[in-house]
Design a protein that fits this description.
- This protein is of the alpha/beta class.
- The chain has a single domain, classed as 3-Layer(aba) Sandwich (Rossmann fold), CATH 3.40.50.
- The protein has 5 helices and 7 strands.
- The strands form 2 sheets. Strands 2-1-3-4-7 form a 5-stranded parallel beta sheet.
Length: about 160
């Protein structure tokens, strides 16, 4: 049975790249919000956005942060990271800058979004793994993610159970 995960990503620049990962099919992800749905939720303010994220995380065993160029430091991604950790969910990062967007372009690598978070005296970035596919072509990056996604999720859950 496939694990159920929550995918966290910066929507505007990375939704095409994120869709590629979500469509791998080995892991069941949260239902993506359409532009209209997100517009409705976001018009409700912070309380409504938090409630939507919280509801999306129910029943998920891991949060997969898809890391693009500008992912680190985004308000709602930070909230999702904190919530996943607080709710004892596995947490893993996957760099997606090597995947092409809808226009066929790759981007530059972003910073690790787990830096700046502390677990006791340790940096979360020293606990949570962030995988950077070692390839330069989009098809090779995709293949690497496809081959390893299930293993990374299971490892993230195992790591979280140690803390």
């Amino acid at each position: 049975m496939a694990r159920k995960v929550f995918y966290s990503f910066h929507y505007k620049p990375d939704n095409w790249r994120a869709a590629q990962v979500r469509n791998i099919g080995k892991i069941e992800g949260n239902k993506p919000a359409s532009d209209n749905d997100w517009e409705t939720v976001s018009k409700g303010g912070d309380r409504k956005i938090k409630a939507w994220i919280d509801a999306q995380m129910v029943g998920r065993s891991c949060a997969v942060v898809l890391i693009g160029r500008d992912t680190k430091g985004r308000k709602w991604i930070n909230y999702e990271i904190k919530k996943a950790w607080a709710d004892r969910k596995g947490l893993v990062g996957i760099y997606i800058h090597g995947l092409k967007n809808a226009a066929g372009y790759q981007t530059t690598k972003g910073a690790n979004p787990f830096r700046g978070f502390q677990v006791g005296t340790r940096s979360l970035s020293g606990i949570v793994k962030a995988y950077d596919p070692p390839y330069s072509t989009s098809t090779s990056v995709y293949g690497y993610i496809e081959r390893n996604l299930e293993k990374w999720v299971e490892e993230a859950i195992s790591i979280r159970n140690q803390f």
